[in-house]
Amino acid sequence: MFSVTVDLERGCVETCIRGFWTPDLLDDFSAALAKAIIQVRATGRAPVSLCDYSDATVQRQEVVAGFVEMMKNPAVRSRRVAVYTGRVLAKLQAERANLDHAEFRFFTDKDEARAWLFEERVEG
Fold first, then answer.
1. How far apart are CA 16 and CA 2, in angstroms?
2. Which H helix or E strand runs over 85?
3. In the chain, helix, strand, coil percent, each to 5?
4. pTM surpassing 0.85?
5. pLDDT, tens digit, for every residue of 70-86?
């Protein structure tokens, strides 16, 4: 139902979310994500996340509320989060759940998501 992989060289946590979730599955995902974020932070990097939401379905409101609550936890937060999916309803639900998180961007293409995630920003 999910996978979490870490690219320590780029400081990136890649997640893949599939199917219809339960609150227990969300707890397992949160724990796996927190572990991955710790691994990246141990390198001295601020983590970024790439989320494949292509095979996710529209979730029950209880699970969406759990995602919203999970994202309040600094242990699972990334500096930037690029989510990609071609599923319109799932994308809309994910966008609504993350309205308070400016670090999120949503894409329909993985390459566009990666480009945004790793683009160099000139602060000034």
1. 5
2. none
3. 40, 25, 35
4. yes
5. 988 999 999 999 999 98
